Predict the structure.
Amino acid sequence: MNLVVTRVTVQRQCRICGNGRLIPILDLGAQPPANGFLTARQLKRPEARFPLVVQFCESCSLLSLRHTVDSRVLFKNYRYETGASAPLVAHFAEEARMIERQFIRNKSDLVVEFGSNDGALLSALKGTCRVLGVDPAKSVATLAKKRGVLTVTAFFGEKSAERIRKRYGQARVIIANNVFAHIDDVHDVMRGITALLRPDGVFISESHWVGNLIGEGGFDQIYHEHLSYYSLHALRCLAHEHGLVVTKVELVPIHGECLRVSMRKQGVSGASVKRLLRREKSLGLTQLSIFLTFARKADKTRMTLRQLINKLIRKKNTIAGYGAPAKGNTLLNYLQIGKRDIALLMIFYAEEIAFLDSANMNTHSKHSLKTLSHATRSYDDRYCFLLPKPVHA
Ligand SMILES: [Zn+2]
């Protein structure tokens, strides 16, 4: 094992409320970055692995990772493009219409999205108001600019928000879709939001809902890029710390169920907020015991699957792997499945093949794909280990 500890920090206090008594829930072992697909050359070198442990805060109900891997390691080769996923594009088109209908008053209104990726959402809004993307990854920012979406290459936080405010003015709407889970210093980001948001503006974020993770027992959704797994209780606590009010919430059917939360500087919590808070309590999402049960189930799944694979191999069966989502890597590594277990990985879904081709990459996965198209003619695999891609909608 090659454990690079120098690029990891241990989170001893809750990211949201600062509570120092965090309770370890589930240890998924030392894992490589889930999106770190390797080139053929990189395969010959030892791969960096980092601890993957989740912990729970009984004070604000946040589930989060105990170890934070340096984002320069995790996002060095970040390749995810929103526009490459048709269901996500459709989802953002719907969100753009909702924002236009509910919040845009005139063409000079400013909408800022951080973690704007390739500009899929903002490009759907750009005819109706001023739009500005903020994203640290140069590669996707270039794609956004090609779509006509002005994009600042930066991490969003208090400093960058101040620069944006001075240059472009305050925003009527600030958006953060599927990025909040990635953020280490959430307070710096919240300070940026309060500085940039107009007094009558709205901040809308979408994040994975921890209720979905726990309900489905989907421990494979846990990987280093996802530092926090939010409940409405946790997000409300964060909003409160920064003088914001959660005015509205809905669970939208993307990535399972996703929390779409609206925060404002003024206003009151609506019925939707009260309803979901009650539901979270009844599901036990504010209690330690439900998370410990989740961990026990994950361990049981690991043992059952591992025993099954061992048995099949003892009987000289060949097992093939199918699919290559990031969550598949959490599962494979937690179960310690490697070359000795699976003869052949991987087949890609159509959109991922297109994505890999468009980026002109020679990844290990692509290499395997070529191998597979040849090898399927000679292999007669009786067993296939499915690593399905999450259903977006
Ligand atoms: Zn907390």
